[in-house]
Amino acid sequence: AWCVLLAALWLLRVPSLAQPMASDQGLYAYAGQRLMAGDAPYAGAWDQKPPGIHVIYGVLWALWPHESVVAAADMAAAGAVAWLLVIIGRRRLDEATGVAAAAVYLFFGNPALTQRLGGVFVRGQCETFIALAITGALALAATHDRRRGHLLGIGVLLGAAFWLKYNAAAYAVTAAVALACWPRGMAFEPRAWVRELATVSAAGLVMVLAPIALMALTGSLSDLYLATIAY
Questions:
Q1: Which of 93, 108, 189, 204 has its CB surrounded by the most CB atoms within 10 Å?
Q2: Residue 46, by phi and psi: left (phi above 0), alpha (psi -120 to 50) or beta?
Q3: What does the alpha-carbon distance between residue 39 and residue 74 come to, in Å, rounded to a whole number?
Q4: Is the pLDDT at 35 greater than 80, yes or no?
Q5: Percentage of the chain surpassing pLDDT 70?
């Protein structure tokens, strides 16, 4: 019954596939196309968002060059977040809690049910993919036998969220608390926690610095600053 409920809540998003994309998403898509064509960030198209959303839209448009890809990506991300919530519940709480969290998310997170005009303007925005990245990071943190690969994955996902919106860096606190509340062993060990934080931080730092280095090579750092900070 729970599976049927979650599937039904997710399938409520199917009509969105017929919706056109709004102005913001059109700008993301064009900026993404210019990146895929070889333009430097903010050279072929200017936007005040960090380049992460442009990269995502560039890849999406390369896979499916139609505006329905926005709603499809939004729907896929919502389904993935719900699935990850169930996994987190199974690993650290109980399955019922995970399923309930997924149901609440699918209902109240559906733009068609909570936003005017069917949620066209907020579908496929940065927050859609930030939610996916952070929930994925927490699902990795919830793993009982955490290894270095899990911790590196957490750092990578936190870095990806940062490049979607800078204030997503605040979720690093959430990840740190999750690692402390869900220790790998039977009890919390401060030294082990610090070592895990160091691994996560190293991966996250690489994810932040690598695009900066790439944009420095293309002469885009001043454009990045003007577009996403000064503006």
A1: 204
A2: beta
A3: 26
A4: yes
A5: 100
